Amino acid sequence: MSWLEVVRGGVLVTVQDRGRPGYAALGVGTSGAADRRSHDSANRLVGNDPGAATLEVTLGGLQVRAHGQATVAVTGARVPLRVNGIPCGDYSATHLSDGDVLTLGHATAGLRSYLAVRGGVDAPPTLGSRATDTLAELGPPSIRTGDRIPIGTMARQWPAEELIPPPPTVGAATLHVRLGPRDEMFTAGALDTLLGQAWTVTQDSNRVGMRLEGPVPLERADRGELPSEGMVPGALQVPAGGQPVLFLADHPVTGGYPVIAVVVDDDLAAAAQLVPGAALRFARG
Length: 285
Prior knowledge:
Layout: E1 3-8, E2 12-16, H1 36-45, E3 54-58, E4 63-67, E5 70-78, E6 81-83, E7 86-88, E8 94-96, E9 101-104, E10 109-117, E11 148-150, E12 173-179, H2 188-196, E13 199-205, E14 209-213, E15 229-230, E16 235-237, E17 245-247, E18 254-255, E19 259-263, H3 268-272, E20 279-284
Parallel strand pairs: 12-20
Antiparallel strand pairs: 1-4, 1-11, 2-3, 3-10, 4-9, 5-8, 5-10, 6-7, 6-9, 12-19, 13-14, 13-20, 14-17, 15-18, 16-17, 16-19
């Protein structure tokens, strides 16, 4: 049976799939790949079932050795790839022979890369998913140097394409939002500020949420207490200081601060690739 040996673990590497929806009432979020679009593309390139697990690699730096034959693909954040020191391309299928070493360099654009292996990463499922939820501490532990990664059997027929064009590199991202459900708790000026000024991703960001900083904080008109209510990926929750937090894949299922707007599902993949220091704007969508 083929498997991958982790020669170097990188900054943060987790096992991810499409998550575990349907358990919010039990206090368990969906989790799964932060950039599901890139995760799905990697699986497609190696002919995997859509439910197969990949490795989500933050900022690159992962190095693995193949034990047995393996076919892999890397998508998401752009990273220089090498097999046994020889450059190869991302967003395409790469065939590894026994003993080959695949190295992901440091990300040159974006934050999270996805390494898919034909057959999928094999890990014990929890509530029907192999995803690592960093907030709830469910699923496999983070991948570390020396780990042995089994390869599963979730492969399908080979796809017709062996190359998927990567998304274009853009400057400041524009994320589309729908206002609410608590936009009435903010001043009219706060809504103009949300859509009118640029925001910066702070260092205090992770898979749970992305803290944003803008020159003008969002001012509340109603400062009353708000009972905890359900949260969804893309929710823009605004704490007392007026600087919003954009919830990502491992967000809490409830929160007590008002949500001024929600980023549309189609833009969550782009949000997940924003590095600390990146600029973004919000627009009605």
